[in-house]
Amino acid sequence: MPLRIYLGAVYLAGAAAAGWMLATASWVVHGELQAVLAVAAVLLVLGELFPMRLWSRGNPQEYTMSGAFALVLLNTGPLVYALLPAIAALLVVEVRERKPLRVAAFNVAQNILMLGAARLAICAIERVGVSDPITGVPAGQQLIGLAGGAVAYFLVNNILTGTAFALSSGSGVPRSILSSMREEFPVTPIVLGVSPMIAASLAFSIWTAPLCVLVIVAIRTAVMIATRHEIAALHDSLTGLPNRTLLLMRLRESMADATPERQTAALMIDLDRFKEINDTLGHSVGDELLKVVAQRLTEITGSRGTVARLGGDEFAIVLNRTTAATTDRLAGEAAAAFVEPIRIADMSLTVTASVGAALSPQHAVDAEKLLHLADLALYAAKQERGRHAFYDPESEEHSTASSVLVGELQRGLGKGELVVFYQPKVDALTGALIGVEALVRWQHPTRGLLPPGRFLPAVENTPLVVPLTAHVIDSALAAVRGWRDRGLAISVAINLTARQVASEDLPRQIEAALALHGLPSQALVVEVTESSLMANPAQTRTVLGRLREMGVGLSMDDFGTGYSSFTHLRDLPVTEIKIDQSFVAGTVDSVRSAALVKSIIDLAHNLGLNVVAEGVETTECRSVLTGMGCTMLQGYLLARPMPADQLEQWYAAQLALTAEPAVA
């Protein structure tokens, strides 16, 4: 209601001012002033019809030259000669841009009031209505009056606009007026500031009009150059989207007006398979993919906010005046936007996106902090691809604890606190020791012996995983070398994470470690889970293929728990599969589990693969698995993980206890 009353008041004031101007208008001009007024009127119309575009504080703004020529007309001839061309040009622009009637009416009334205020200021300062009719050259006092008119023109413009924005947005009126003035600086004051020079030039001689045109061209050229530099500094060159700098500017603007009911949302978006596509198909395909991603995110967001590219395959969205429910919906739309394959160069590419979101003022009141919290939410979402997640304070506490744990682990690695235990894998029929699985433990100085589940999740996505992997490989191969020197010819299996198994340097690292300890490649088996294979399929296949060519064994761990197990058996040079313990535990009591396990064992035999059942904890389970034809067994029934120096003692004890073909 206040906005409607205000707009109505502006309409009435503009109409009254226009009526008074027309009723008291003087149409009489003398001599050369007719040509001067005609030239200034034409330049006014052209200045209004062809605005200049400039990026001001991260937002595109339009500036016109019409104000300068309106002031010249006000200072040179009767008021009506400025009013009519100004309103006519403005109406053409409003119709061309299809502005709503109420907006067009406000703009017309606003311009009438601006011209009236400027005329009053000029007259008050000069104490005369027009230039000297004898010389046609404005005197010094008249130039001061023209400057005063420019100030009045500028102030009325921003007061009227700022008040309207304040009433529509609910923000403070003084603050909105000052914000409007800041947006106009420095272009509008410069444009209005050249009006005395143009007035003096035209009053001196009509033939100086080309000089006025040169001034206009110079200003427009300077604005164009500044705009190009501003766009380059604030936008991503590939997609044309705002970059991080502009995103932060927009985010701070939005957060300044945010309330608990109308919040600002920051969404972080990351593509899950972009690196694989970029590395496999080339950067040109990757660039085209990023352009399509930018387009889809922009279409989803619309006018509700800003989409930005932060770098690589990372994008962000800022939503203005939103709610948690609206943000959740848009985050879901963004995550689902890439279900439909993207066609590039006759190829159909499938990617998934993960989205993390945080709200202001609910979660943070600082722009950088809000983006950081959205990034934490993104990390949580990436644990399951194609998801979206909101920031959860508990996740930040977990992240902080993880960071502390990683720091302690780095120190512990240097101090030799990371030790490797070994769990035997035995022949299901004879009980003979065939190999061991290496399992890292952390002998923490205050927390005691920690299993891998207590620290590996915090490390696997950090650079520390590289030296940790090297330590486990070196320790395991050193143990195998010692056992073989004492007549125990067994192999060791090492578990690798998704990041490790996708490392191009892994084959060289393993080859060097085998050579260092004088071991054949058959002494090592690499265990990978299906989830690690899915993280970067193309790169993983390449790395595992190179390892297999070296002679290193390849075991698929947790077989049967994923959706693509059989596909991996077809595409990868697997030598062994390990049946997940969730299936193994049900072989005695569940007919369905037993049938599944039997099918896996038969499949492995048909493909010529070894099959290991892990998690064997009862004699009944061992008997069932042996009867099914399982090749190897592993579990607490047979032996718990143990240090390297205890393995030989355990094996000797097993040989001494029984001469039966199976382990007791």
TrEMBL record:
InterPro entries noted in UniProt: Biofilm_reg_signaling (IPR052155), EAL_dom (IPR001633), EAL_sf (IPR035919), GGDEF_dom (IPR000160), Nucleotide_cyclase (IPR029787), Rev_trsase/Diguanyl_cyclase (IPR043128)
Record-linked PROSITE patterns: EAL, GGDEF
Transmembrane segments: 7-29, 35-55, 67-92, 104-122, 143-167, 187-219
UniProt xrefs under CDD domains: EAL, GGDEF
The keyword Transmembrane helix belongs to this UniProt entry's keyword annotation: yes
Domain GGDEF: 262-395
PANTHER family referenced in this protein's UniProt entry, alphabetically: BIOFILM ARCHITECTURE MAINTENANCE PROTEIN MBAA, DIGUANYLATE CYCLASE DGCP
Name of the featured protein: GGDEF-domain containing protein
Source organism (scientific name): Paractinoplanes rishiriensis
